[in-house]
Amino acid sequence: MRKRDRVFKMITLGLKQMQDPYYQGFAAQLSFYFILALVPIILLISQVLTSIFKQNLEDAIGWIMDYIGTSGIGSYIEKLVIGNGGGAMSLVFIIIAVWAASRVQFSMMRITNYTFSDGQYTGKGFLRDRIRAFATMGLTILTIVFAIIVLLYGDVILSTVLKIIGKESDATDIWMVLRWPIAIVLYFLMISFNYYVLPMRRMKFREIIPGSIFASVGLLIVSYLYSKYAFSIANYSLLYGSLATIVALLFWFYFLAWVLFLGILVNKVWADTKTY
Known about the structure:
Elements: H1 3-18, H2 26-51, H3 57-68, H4 71-82, H5 91-116, H6 126-152, H7 154-164, H8 171-197, H9 205-232, H10 236-240, H11 244-273
Transmembrane segments: 21-45, 80-101, 133-154, 174-196, 208-226, 238-266
InterPro entries: Virul_fac_BrkB
Main location: membrane
C-alpha cells in the first residue's frame, strides 16, 4: 500500500471509530481529572525539588512551567499551585497525592484498552485498574522528576562527563546548545512511556512511535495556540470572575485530552493498516 493510500485508510478508520458514543464524554472527563491531579502532581514534584535539592517552591514551580507550559498557561498553573501551599513531605501525603493524581491514568488506561480492543473491554476490573493506575502514576511522577533533575543539573552532569573522558571544554556553553533538544527528547519519552504502559496489550516500542510523535507535536501546538487565544482574545474573568483560572485550565485540558486520545487512535489505526 502506498503511503498516501495508507494515510487515507488511517483517517477513514479513525473517523469511523470516533463515532462510537463511548468517546463523546472522554475529553470532558479527562480534563476534570487533570484539574484534580494537577495540584498533587506539581506539589509532589516541587516537594522533591525543595526537600532534596533545596529549591525554593516558587522558583521550582516557575522553573517547571518554563519547560512544560507556555508562559501564559504556566502563570495560570503557578497561581493555582502556589495558592494551595506545600504540605508536609510524608509517606501519607505521597500516597494520598499519587492516589488522587492516578485518576488521570485510570481514565487514560480505560480509553486506551477500549480503543485497542475495538470496544471489547476497558480493563481487568475497577479495583485492579485503580491499583495499576496508582503504580503507573507513581512511575510517571518519577520519570518527570528524573527529567527535571537532568535538566536542572545538566551542566554539572555534562562537566563531570567531560572531565572523565579527558575533554577540556566549557560545559555551560555546550549545555546551552543541548538543553532544549534534550528537553524535547525527554518530553517525547514521557509521552511514549504512558502510551507503552497503559494498554493491557503488550506493544513494541516502535508501534507507539507514530502516536507519540503526533501527541508530542499536537500538545505543543495546542498549548501555544490556546495560550495566544486565552490571553489575546478570550476574557474569562469578565464572565467567570474568580473562577477564570479554573475555567481557562479546564478548556486547555479539554483540548489536550483530545490530542492525547488522537495519539492513541493514531497508534491503533497505524497497527490496523500495516498489513494492507
